[in-house]
């Protein structure tokens, strides 16, 4: 019984963390105010080639906060203006 509860709790926790780590889309990288560790945000600022969008990730913790990395990833869905 205790093992079942622990399994359920860990499953719910992993679902909650995955939901918060989803990618959102912003128009400028300066619009990302509070990037969390593991969070992904897509930035549609035109710096990547056609069909791709910049993805900024909270890569690792430093003494100054969360360090960011960015790469160009394939764009999914229509381009949106925000």
Structural overview:
The protein is an alpha+beta fold. It has a domain of 56 residues. Helix content is 23%, strand content 34%. It contains 1 helix and 4 strands. Strands 1-2-3-4 form a 4-stranded mixed sheet, with no helix packed on it. The longest helix is centred in the first third of the chain and has 19 residues. It is extended.
List keywords for this structure.
82 residues; alpha+beta; 4 strands; 34% strand; extended
Question: Which consecutive residue ranges, at least 5 long each, have pLDDT under 50?
Answer: 17-21
Spatial gap, N to C terminus: 49 Å
Tertiary shape: extended
Q: Structural class, judged by helices and strands? A: alpha+beta
Task: Give the structure's gist in a few sentences.
The protein has 82 residues and is of the alpha+beta class. It contains 1 helix and 4 strands; from the N terminus they run αββββ. It has a domain of 56 residues.
